[in-house]
Amino acid sequence: MTRLTAPRWGTALALALVLLAGDKAVASDDQPASPHGQPSACGDCHQPTTAGALPQAIQFRDGSPDASCKRCHTEDPHQIGLLPKRTKIPPKMLLVDGRLACLTCHDEPACEGKPVDPAAPYFFRGGPYEHEGQLCAQCHQVKGDRFNPHAAMAAAPTDPTTCEHCHVDPPAPDATEADLKVSGPNICHGCHMETLHAGIIAHTGVAPGAIATRAHKAGLPLTDTNEIVCVTCHDPHPVGTTTVADARRSIIGTPVLPKGWQKDVLTPALADRAADIGVPLQAESSEPDLLRLPLRDGELCRACHRPAAIDAARRSER
Questions:
Q1: What tens digit of pLDDT does each residue of 296-312 get?
Q2: pLDDT value at position 261?
Q3: Is 166 a member of any domain?
Q4: Are residues 109 and 68 in the same domain?
Q5: Structural domain of residue 4, as residue ranges?
């Protein structure tokens, strides 16, 4: 049986749950109705029960809270299930069978007979919050708007609790592989939900054969099916935390040298792509951290692309 751990689970929930299948919000032809904030739509997620049933007797349609959420949120990137060994969860943040779950951070307003608060469209538990960092601060030591594991690693490279934010177990500094809590690019999307940059659309998906071969040769990781993901170009570990990251120490902060093809070909192409997705093009004047190869002389781009191919692509867009 699924056990919800919390000081209370809302007495109004027990009063509201007279579950009638088919009594739902109206859906459009291509979009299923959202049950959130709809006290009449309890049957979307819960098994039928009787009025006045105790919260612990109320069952989920799909066997567990997470399974019910995943029926609609099939590609949700957030980390659930594993609880970092040293993380302390305050009582108001629900655990399911002692593990992190969707209900840990999200509180369904309909369970209290309430609609969705426009000030809290994601119905974060304990909200509304002025910014998401206040939610993160319920469990994490946060400086600034939200918990930043990259900055936390740089500040305390030997603190294993930061590693456990993404990894099942803290890997060794020289490890080349480590188990992630969420596979693929989703481990990044859990925080970078709306992160866009020029070229991001063109640089996702399965890499063509020749590009995949060059990426592997340059040490740029792809998935088992040769998909380009965030960590193909970005190393989430800052200098000082891993052996691979330390190899970049002499490069970080040095000037980026704009060669002709970068200035005349790459920058205009990226400017077009930035305009397509509505983000400003921000040119780097010095080498940033968290890139697997330097930008200088186009080394990162040249790992997969030939300058002539980039030039040809640019000409075809004119």
A1: 877 888 899 876 655 56
A2: 64
A3: no
A4: yes
A5: 1-147
